Amino acid sequence: MHWRGEGLSWKQSDPLLFIAALALGGLGLTLVTSATWRYMDSPSLLEDVWTVRHLAFLGVGILGMIGFASLPPRVYEALAYPVYAFSLATLVAVAILGKASAEHGALAQRWIEVGGVQLQPSEPAKVALVLVLAKLFAGGVPGLRRMLLSMAITGAPVMLVYLQPDLGSALCMIASWAGIVVLAGTPKKYVFAIGGLAVASMPLLWLSMRGYMRERVLTFLNPEAYALGEGYNVLQAQISIGSGGLWGKGLFEGTQTQLRYLRLSHSDFIFSVLGEELGFVGAMAVLLLFLFLLFRVLRAGDTGDGQFASLLCGGIASLIAFQTVANVGGNIGLTPVVGIPLPFLSHGGSSLITQFSALGLVQAALVHRRPYRFEV
Amino acid sequence: MLILAFSFLALGLWRLQLVQGQAHGRAAERNAIRLNTIPAPRGVVYDRGGQILAENAPVFVVSLVEADLPENRRVEVLDRLARLLGTTRTALERTLDQRRVPGDVFFPVRLRSHLERSLALTLEQEGWELPGVRVSVESARQYPEGDLLSHVLGYLTQPSPGEFEQKYRGEGYSISSLVGASGVEATYESALRGSDGARLSEVDAGGRPLGELGVVPPIPGGNVKLTIDLNLQRSATNILRAKLQPGSSGAAILADPRTGEILALVSLPTFDANVFSRPDSEGDILTLLQDPSLPLFHRAIAGQYPPGSTFKLAVGIGALQEGVASRNTQIRSEGGLRVPNPYNPRLFTWFPDWAVLGDMNFIRGLALSSNVYFATLAGGFGDFQGLGVDRVAQYARLVGYGAATGIDLPSEEAGRVPTPTWKVENFGEGWLTGDTYNMAVGQGFVLATPLQVANVTNAIANNGTMMRPHVAQAVLDQGGRTIEAVPREVIRQLGVRSDVIQVIREGMISTLEQDRVRAFQIPGVKVAGKTGTAEYVGPRDAAGNLPTHGWFTGFAPAEDPQVTVTVFLEKGGGPTDAVPIAMDMLRAYLERKGGAG
Question: ipTM score of the complex?
Answer without folding.
Answer: 0.82
